[in-house]
Every structure is written in structure tokens, then in C-alpha cells.
Amino acid sequence: MSAADLDDAALAASLAAEAGRLLMAVRASGMFEGKALGKAGDATANQFLCHALRHLRPDDGLLSEEEKDNPARLAKSRVWIVDPVDGTREYGEARADWAVHVALAVDGVAVTGAVALPGLDVGVVLRSDQLQPLVPLPDRPRFLVSRTRPAREAEAVAATLGGELVPMGSAGAKAMAVVRGEAEVYLHSGGQYEWDSCAPVAVAAAHGLHCSRIDGSPLVYNQADTYMPDLLICRAEWAERVLAEVARLPANA
């Protein structure tokens, strides 16, 4: 089957996987390191993803972190939202906790997505159309936080609920850690953009996880302003308690 014949979910997964292979090849070439490696990887993956989507889904809109925004997407019902390298710093440092995001938002909802984790294994792609069983919950929730800037809300709620903080790199790696059973809560309040969460939310929601803003309101994509202030992705069993604890926090918590 050619790429042109793939349905949206299979296309997202195929593109994310191939972008991951390209990124690993760029890193293995030895031509770049550090920030230069991050820039080279971003450029290579972005060129591949955007060219493929414009060719294979020419009637859809497109939003990429690495492309100048085209406001024409706002008039589209279907918009592809991609992050060629989510976690450029981690990629440039040759760490494993980075990702490739490919998602399709329909009428503002993240409905289809794929998140590749090439740093773990070039074949690891989590998809919204191929579900894996969720693992049993541990007694204490594990909260995923930034390696360098842990969200104060996450620290506060974890302390109240007797939870454990788990530092990790990119947003996609964190969200997929919840899907994979490596943690239960990803609570982020430091600001992101649509491409940081669209694919992870599509995959997480398909697996039955709770996905929302930290006040419980919906995540809406394909907006004129692509900034998204906060995010909660967690096991559904913890959602009510986490949201309640966030609501109790003082404004400067």
C-alpha cells in the first residue's frame, strides 16, 4: 500500500516513524553536536513532514513549529499539527526522552495522532488507532515534571496526594510515559504551544486518559493564537482529585 492510500491514523504513524529514522540518521552521522544537532534535526524532519503532508493531504491545513504560520489553516476543518522534534535539547544531548509528533485536529479537536519515540527505539510509535492496555495503578501517583523547570502546581499537588516527582524531557515523552504506565499524571503549567500537545493528546485520549486544561476545560486546537498555557494528561482514576487539588491552590502556588 502506498502512502497516498493510508488512512489518517496510519499516515500519521508512518510519517512519525520515518521522521524518527531520519533524525537518528542525522545524529549518527557525527556531523553535528549540541545545539547544531538540534537545528539540523529540526530542519530535516520538518522538511520531510511538511512536504509529505502537503503532497498527500493537499486540501488540509498545516501547522508546524518549524514553519511560518499560514493563517489559511484557520478556515480549514482538518488541520495537521506537527512537531518535528519535541525536545530539541534532549535530542541534541543524545538523550532518549524526545519525540516526533504528527496529529490531525478536526474542528479544533485532536482526533488522530502518532508519537514516535526514536530515542528509546526507532520502532516505537504510539498511535491513536492501535491501543495498548493500561497497566494497574500503583498506590502512589507518579507526577511527570520538567527536568529543569518543574511546575509549581505539580509539585504542590504531588505533595498533597503523597505522589512522587519523575523528571523527564519533552512533552511527548512525558505524555507517552503515562500511556506506557511509567507514571500516572502529567501536569504542566509553564506554557506550551499547540504542536507540543496535539499528537500526545490524541494518543492519550484514545487510550482513555483524561486530557484537559488544568482547570478542567477542553483543549482546543487550530487557534489563531497557538499558545496553550497549561495541560493535564492523567489516568482517568486520578483526574477528579488532581483537578480538585489544583483548584484549591492559591493563585501564586
UniProtKB/TrEMBL annotation:
SUPFAM superfamilies: Carbohydrate phosphatase (SSF56655). Pfam families: Inositol_P. GO terms for biological process: 3'-phosphoadenosine 5'-phosphosulfate metabolic process; sulfate assimilation. Its cofactor is Mg(2+). Signal peptide: none annotated. GO terms for molecular function: 3'(2'),5'-bisphosphate nucleotidase activity; metal ion binding. It comes from the Bacteria. Mg(2+) binds at residues 65, 83, 86, 196. Keywords: Magnesium, Metal-binding. This is 3'(2'),5'-bisphosphate nucleotidase CysQ. The lineage of its organism: Bacteria, Pseudomonadati, Pseudomonadota, Alphaproteobacteria, Sphingomonadales.
